[in-house]
Amino acid sequence: MHIRSKEVCDGIGNNRPDLEPTCGRPLGIGFYLRTKQLFIADAYQGFLVVAPNERVATKIASGAEGVPFKLPTGLDVDQLTGNVYFTDASSQYSLSEIQEAIDTGDATGRLLKYDNNTQQVTALLSGLSGAGGTSISSDGSFVLVSEFTANRIKKFC
After folding, report:
1. Is the Cα torsion angle 97, 103, 105, 111 positive or negative in sign?
2. What is the CATH number of domain 26-156?
């Protein structure tokens, strides 16, 4: 087992997939301007935040509603509320198994919401096919979520 360190995880000259579970693989990031927090959806580490003036990410959650994250991906921050919307592409397959998820038509992805006030993560939509990117409308009235396996975009109001 590797220890997460600059020497192991600096990303220079060590582009090795076997290090991803140790070093992480951020697939979605978003910055909340008001509090200067950087939120991260990491395929291996879960849902994380880097606080202002900090250099290390802290894990917020590794699952929601009793279901562990397998492949956190897209992420967007509502600049009006500080709530974070992100996706878990599958509750069955990890990043290293993504081709199998696509081949089997896996539809266990979810759209999730981190409530900045309660600090709770809840599932807003489930049954998504390869839930990917998220985007919040400018007035916060809806969230778009892409499903890369189903080749569509869903709107959550």
Report:
1. positive
2. 2.120.10.30
- This prediction's pTM: 0.89
The tens digit of pLDDT for each residue in 54-105 reads 888 899 999 999 999 999 999 999 999 999 999 999 999 998 898 999 999 9
Specify which residues 153 forms β-bridges with.
Answer: 146
Sheet holding 143-147, edge to edge: 131-136, 143-147, 152-156
Domain residue extents for the chain: 26-156
* CA–CA dist 84, 147 (Å, integer): 18
d(CA 4, CA 59): 14
